[in-house]
Specification:
The chain is mainly alpha-helical. It folds into two domains: about 150 residues, no CATH class; about 70 residues, no CATH class. It has eleven helices and two strands. A two-stranded parallel sheet has the order 1-2. Helix 1 crosses helix 6 and helix 5 crosses helix 7.
Amino acid sequence: MKSRRKHGFQFMTILYFLIVFCMCVSRFNVIMTIMGGQLTRVEEINLLPFHSIRENLKYGRSPVSWDMLYNMVMFVPFGVIYCYYQKNFRVYKAVGMSCLTTFFIESAQLVLKTGVVDIDDLIVNTLGSLTGIVVYVILQQISFKNQKFEIHELIDISATMLPPMFIAFIAEMFLGDGSLKLLPVHCVVLLCYGIFVYVFLIRDFTRKAKVYYLACYVGAFYLSRVLL
């Protein structure tokens, strides 16, 4: 049971990092090219901290843009995953790993010329990782207070929510109103994915954990359909 759950979460981890790489480095340029779009080349570097915030304030916009919030949310799972694999985790080590990962991504953007190399991304991504650590600690406290839940069960269940939302996001981003045509396919994909997760992660959980998983997955399924 533990081996199957371990391999299942490892699959989720690999999937998460692939998603982060595609979102941060390629900016979907490869996909856009396949779909007939043009490959975008960007060669910009910003080494001034909080430059984006100052620019937003300068033009009367909100200091926190959707792009900054998006980058922060994207790195929340990083903090959770690090704590998941490190039983005696240290905050400074998690922050250091987040900085190294972001530095690698920013360097890849510079080499591939597929994005803006921005020090603000390093700051925002690190804040996202710190948020993930806080989320892990909160889930840990919940598991301590409610002995029917294990911390790894809570993390495993929460991790299953990422791919369905990502599928809906991609469809909406590239196809807009045309994504409605993909609704039947999207539903089948989500159903198959849910069965896969149940077999490899959820099957041996407690009954209460299964109910929690079902509630979360139905919620994610509904939200993904709303996005489409």
